[in-house]
Amino acid sequence: MDENRHHRLRARTLKGLQLFALFIAMCFICIPGLWVVLNSFRPTVEIMAKPPVWIPQDLNLDHYRAMFGGVGEGGVPVLRYFTNSLIISVTSTVIAILVGMAGGYAFARYQFKGKAAIFIGLMLTRAVPGVALSLPLFIVMARTGLIDTHIGLILVYVSLNVPFTIWLIDGFFRQVPVELAEAAEIDGCTRWQAFWKVEFPVARAGVASAGIFAFLTSWNEYALASQLTRSTFSKTMPVGLRDFTSEFTINWGGMCALAVLMIIPALILTFLVQKHLIAGLTFGGVKG
Amino acid sequence: MTRFRLPAWFVLLLPAIIVLAAVVLIPLLLSLYSSFTSYRLTRPDSLYNWIGTFNYEKAAKSAHFWAAFGRTLLLLTIALNLEMLLGLGLALLVNQVTYGQRALRTIMMFPMMFSPLLVGFQFKFIFNDNVGLVNNALQSLGLSNTAIPWLVDGQLAFFSILVAEMWSSTSVFAILILAGLFAVPRDPIEAAKVDGCTPWQSFRHITLPYIMPFIYIALAIRSLDVARAYDIVQIMTNGGPARRTELIWTMIGRTGYVDAKMGYANAMGYISIFLAIFFTIYFFRKLNAARAELGMGG
């Protein structure tokens, strides 16, 4: 009897400890982000207060108002940055998906010499550190007049996203049985029709998850964008975030508001497809 | 009918190859060439001033360069190992939970959406010695009377950067390992329990081999952009104060753009590229070996 109770007690403490550890871990994950969100609603006086104000006294939208009004915050043209980011990210994602789909299909369906080597070669282009790549790109783009343009950055992001897109989409097309497309061809489809009508719908989830990754990469990229953009004409939001820092002071509240604006689209997109996201990573990697 | 036709796979791969050649390969060849010249941004004609391996020798002799190189390796080694262990721990904890697991998984993905730059900014704010969350908390709790200079002291700054880097990437490991845990078959674990294995033994000999490929996927994915730590460091300390948190990437950026010594920066850039390629190939080989072990190769 006593041993039974002892066991139950031990199991319960273990369970309690587990839950406690999980709680702590979740706090670590959430607090940094929430801290930024909270501070975007607080007036600068309260952020800078000494001793610190722990319970927010005065929450308002001043930083957002100043941000969108373009005045007071040193006139950072946030809306302009937002549209730049949106145009560049969406265009480069669409192109990267199309190019990646062609490439992924080639890897999944055709056997050819040096397949593994070509695959690794493509992956390695992604491993080149952004800052190391930005130096020669800066020179090339300055010569060709592509610096500080949307097209220049779109081109760069397409190439940044293509390798990973190919990897993910390849994994998904492998999940689609070859017989499916063959059956469609026997029934009179051309290869092209078989692809769009049979194989593509089955692998759509993979394409979606590759798209999200491509979008997030372009949306969040900084190392290259910071060198290849010069003016408000092409600056993206990550680069714009630096506008809030001057040599000696940093406008924390304004920065937090822009940070929130940057996160919202990423959050929405990720939550919409989070199931596919995990499946995409694991299919692409393990079974591919 | 003897008209030569390109094979279909080549046509399909062509767009990818063209884009990558234009944006990555050609610039890299240019940077390889310019790393042998004394190219300075301010004097374009210096691009034709061939100086051989001078830049590489200069890097090899520079104590600053080796310090940055060593620090980069140290940061990567510590960060990747800790991220893997913490990710494994987190995945195991979440796997135990039966109620509300979906919500936990969603929360776990939270840091993945943050741009590395945002992570850097966020932790710069949190570790700020004057208004930061950490110092405010320590002072309010009475644990410290003075403002701890998190981002000014060399070792503390390295620690702060490590925390930021781990915050941003641990969840990648946790989510992939969790997906691996779902795929572990139940039967062998039940059988091991019946045969009297301790929980540790069944974890070590059954669960772990099954999730190894997933760990290597996570490592391979991470190794594809290890250099994103650059964004974090650039915003948090920019290698400073006085080079105490200088990584190879921040050093390249400063030499290239601030000092305008493109040739020298490109030489260091090439060294950093080989470092990244080494990490990537290493983890992809591990991944293939782990796949083969589970009979999923091909």
Topology:
The complex is a heterodimer of chains A (288) and B (298).
Chain A (H helix, E strand, L loop, with lengths): L1 H39 L3 H5 L13 H8 L8 H32 L5 H13 L2 H15 L5 H26 L2 H9 L4 H12 L1 H17 L4 H4 L8 H4 L11 H21 L1 H14 L1
Chain B lengths: L7 H27 L19 H8 L1 H34 L4 H8 L7 H11 L6 H8 L13 H30 L2 H9 L4 H26 L4 H8 L11 H11 L3 H32 L5
Written account of the structure:
Chain B: This is Sugar ABC transporter permease. Chain B: Its main location: membrane. Chain B: InterPro entries: ABC_transporter_permease (IPR051393), MetI-like (IPR000515), MetI-like_sf (IPR035906). The complex is a heterodimer of chains A (288) and B (298). Chain A is mainly alpha-helical and 288 residues long. Chain A has helices at 2-40, 44-48, 62-69, 78-109, 115-127, 130-144, 150-175, 178-186, 191-202, 204-220, 225-228, 237-240, 252-272, 274-287. Chain A has 2 domains: 2-67, no CATH class; 71-287, MetI-like fold, CATH 1.10.3720.10. Chain A is built from 14 helices and no strands. The longest helix of chain A is centred in the N-terminal third of the chain and has 39 residues, at 2-40. The radius of gyration of chain A is 25 Å and the shape is flat. Chain B is mainly α and 298 residues long. Chain B contains 12 helices and no strands. Chain B is globular, with a radius of gyration of 24 Å. The model of chain B has no long low-confidence stretch (mean pLDDT 83). At the A-B interface, α1, α4, α5, α6 and α7 of A face α1, α3, α4, α5 and α6 of B.
